[in-house]
Amino acid sequence: DLLDLSVAQSMFQQHKLTVNSQQLTVPEVINCLTSVYDGLEQEHKDLVNVPLCVDMCLNWLLNVYDT
């Protein structure tokens, strides 16, 4: 609820991640997530802990896409 889709889209464009054919490395995912959560922290400082959010989201993504 805190993240608008347009913000997520611009974050992907900022990190040049608009092509679906490329695979992301873990550091690239961490950079993207950090950008997202840094922006959210500026608007909702009391709700967002950037390191914790990045860690939890990365963990979730790795579990979902573990093959």
TrEMBL record:
InterPro entries in the record: EF-hand-dom_pair, EF-hand_dom_typ1, KCMF1/Dystrophin
Residue span(s) of domain EF-hand: 1-67
Pfam family, one: EF-hand_2
This protein's name: EF-hand domain-containing protein
Organism: Cirrhinus mrigala (Mrigala)
